[in-house]
Structure formats: structure tokens, C-alpha cells
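FAQ

Q: What does a record look like?
A: Structure on top, sequence underneath. For example:
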């Protein structure tokens, strides 16, 4: 099987973290001196999924700069200036073998429109999608296997959290209703880490105000085309400054639950075994 592309939403303004996002896009806020985006990509690449599409927007040029200068930013180096500038890396980072497409999906644009605008980069029928501000100790191989087994258009990872994120009304493995603003604090919420078939593009529109968590996901659930992958393990978003502090504290303790890449990476082409 060809590599499954991973789409990451990176374009929002992150107003609840304005003390940080005033200067940089939310996915570049650092946990343990590494951008949140790097942590998310490490989760996927641990399972062999290394082909990423980043939906940029607010301060997207900083995301472009980060990946254009990835080796230099993650190494000590010596530069010889002159007509033929030479750079020597002293401690180059591990070879990630990532393929990164940074797509400018607009400045004041909602999530559904961002997804629609990267449709041209999705070559195969299957792709994954997540937000640029959440980490988990999720088994991506099991998530993909689950999606392929039920045969519907979409899968959303359901997590438990006392939060304000979209609530999932679940009947068996199906999402019966998707509520953007939950009224109760129990059950599963939208934890990101989606898997979709290309049929999802019929549910989103290339209009700036198309919000993925409203009509697109709600209609997908009504049509019986959205299943939930229950994740009972660790999940945490970086929505507030308190979240940022908690994530950094976990990382500094050496016991960050989402750091699943300490061992040998698994091959995404052999996901049926994982």
C-alpha cells in the first residue's frame, strides 16, 4: 500500500494562547524546545507515516521557514561566508525522511475550507487528518485498521476530557450526532486523529466560513458515515497557557505519555500487522 498522507491543520490564530501566538503560529509553540507540530509529526512517523500536508494560514511563512531550515535550526553549525557560502552541521538531527507539503490555505479561513483547499494534494482514496495542537499515545496502525474495517467515509478518534470541544453522541461504533458545543461533561469528545476517504470532500466547501466541526461533520454523522475510534489512553490539547505549562512539565519530567517514538519505528506499509 502507498503511504497514507497526513493532513495537519496549522492555520488558525489560537487566540486563547495570544501571549504566545502574537509572535508565532500555534503549531510552532514549543514543548521541550521542539514545536508542537514536531511532536505530532513524530507520533505519525513512529508508525511509518511520513508524508505530511500542512494547512497553513496565520504566520504561515514561519512554518515554511522552519522546514526549509530544519537541519540548521536543529543543529550546531559553522558557516563560511562569501560568494559560495558553506555550512557544516556538527550534530545533525536524525534523518526523519519526512516529506512535507506546506499549503497556504488562507488567513481568515475556517477548518472546512482549509481541508477543501488541499484536496488537490490527496492522490489516494485514504488520508489522515488532525489538529496542530493535540498529542496522544494513540496507536495509529490500529486507527487505520479500524477505519478500513467499517468501510465508511470517516473515523474520528473519541477521547475523554473535561473540555469545550465537539461532543460525540455514539451508538456502537457509529457517531449518531456531532455537537460542536457540548452541554454535558461526559462521554467522548472530538480528539482529532481522523481517517477519511475522499468522499469527505463532498461535505466541505471552498468558502472561508466553512467550519469542519459544524455542517460537514454533523451531516456526515447524520448520513451514518462517521465512526468513532475510542481512545482510552492519554490525550491532551494545547488550548490555553495552563495546557502549555502542563505539557512542558510532563516533557521535562521525562515521562511524556505521547513520546511513543523512543523505540524503533513501525512501518506504515505493514499497518495490518500493528
Amino acid at each position: 500500500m502507498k503511504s497514507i498522507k497526513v493532513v495537519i491543520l496549522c492555520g488558525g490564530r489560537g487566540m486563547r494562547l495570544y501571549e504566545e501566538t502574537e509572535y508565532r503560529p500555534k503549531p510552532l509553540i514549543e514543548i521541550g524546545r521542539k514545536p508542537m507540530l514536531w511532536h505530532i509529526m513524530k507520533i505519525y512517523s513512529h508508525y511509518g507515516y511520513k508524508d505530511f500536508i500542512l494547512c497553513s494560514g496565520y504566520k504561515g511563512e514561519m512554518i515554511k521557514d522552519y522546514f526549509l531550515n530544519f537541519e540548521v535550526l536543529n543543529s550546531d553549525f559553522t558557516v563560511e561566508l562569501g560568494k559560495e557560502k558553506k555550512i557544516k552541521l556538527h550534530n545533525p538531527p536524525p534523518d526523519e525522511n519526512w516529506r512535507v507539503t506546506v499549503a497556504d490555505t488562507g488567513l481568515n479561513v475556517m477548518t472546512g475550507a482549509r481541508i477543501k483547499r488541499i484536496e488537490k494534494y490527496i492522490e489516494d482514496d485514504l488520508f489522515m487528518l488532525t489538529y496542530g495542537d493535540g498529542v496522544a499515545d494513540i496507536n495509529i496502525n490500529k486507527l487505520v485498521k479500524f477505519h478500513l474495517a467499517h468501510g465508511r467515509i470517516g473515523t474520528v478518534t473519541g477521547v475523554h476530557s473535561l473540555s469545550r470541544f465537539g461532543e460525540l453522541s455514539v451508538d456502537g461504533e457509529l457517531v449518531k450526532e456531532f455537537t460542536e458545543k457540548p452541554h454535558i461533561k461526559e462521554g467522548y469528545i472530538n480528539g482529532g486523529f481522523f481517517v477519511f476517504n475522499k468522499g469527505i470532500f463532498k461535505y466541505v466547501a471552498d468558502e472561508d466560513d466553512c467550519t469542519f466541526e459544524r455542517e460537514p461533520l454533523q451531516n456526515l454523522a447524520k448520513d451514518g458515515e462517521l465512526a468513532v475510534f475510542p481512545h482510552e489512553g492519554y490525550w491532551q490539547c494545547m488550548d490555553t497557557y495552563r495546557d502549555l505549562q502542563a505539557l512542558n512539565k510532563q516533557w521535562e519530567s521525562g515521562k511524556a505519555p505521547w513520546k511513543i517514538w523512543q523505540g524503533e519505528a513501525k512501518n506504515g506499509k505493514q499497518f495490518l500487522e500493528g
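Q: Is there anything notable about this one?
A: The first strand starts at residue 5 and ends at 10.
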